[in-house]
Amino acid sequence: MAPPAKKKKFTIRFELGILGLFGLLVVCAAIFFWMFLLGLWAGQSVFTPISAGVSPFARFASPFEGRGGEPPLPALAEPQRDGGQEVVSLPVASAGEEPAGEGAAEPTFFALQVSAFREAERAERDAEQWRARGYDAFLVPPQEADDPFSRVYVGKFDRLADANQLAARLEKEQGVKAYIALVSAARLQGP
Fold first, then answer.
1. pLDDT attached to residue 49
2. Among 124, 130, 110, residue whose Cα is nearest residue 170
3. Residue 30 in domain
């Protein structure tokens, strides 16, 4: 009896000589180089700030047409030294003064929330203790009817980096975990 015939397996073979292999490497290198250049261009265009070059869509997205698509910033007073800390006073509209426009933003600054109390008297005592330690502390009353907490904040900063530095210093020196918050100057209840 004859042995059974083996079935042929389907195989694909690529045979390249030296010249073909070199050509394949050149094509792959050209593709990778092009992707590298495309990645550099895309990365540069993504991280370029809008103010450096105004986007053609900025006039559709912003009501501040003709100004680079950015709202005007309020003028800040010069920083003053108070007990070794830099204090920046922000302009606040007086009671009879109208805002510049309907969409005028309130001036804000960064501050460190160090505590919150349900009783306003305890919050005021805590703020006084922080002032006695040499910090620029202030109290913010509850924001809404369902918010019972009066919050005590330390420092007034126009840059987030400055607030981070003070937060690290408070944690190291005072053992207090402070939270950075953006506070509206209109809600300020100071000393």
1. 55
2. 130
3. no
**What value does the mean pLDDT of the chain take?**
74
CB–CB of 110/181 below 8 Å?
Answer: yes
Considering its fold, how many domains does the chain have in total? 1
Question: Terminus-to-terminus CA distance in the chain, angstroms?
Answer: 110
pLDDT digits (tens, 9 = 90+) for 123-139: 899 889 889 988 888 88
CATH of the domain at 96: 3.30.70.1070
pLDDT tens, 14-58?
888 999 999 999 999 999 999 998 888 877 776 655 544 455 554
- From residue 173, alpha-carbon distances to 108, 167, 177 in Å are 27, 10, 11
C-beta separation of 148 from 142 below 8 A:
yes
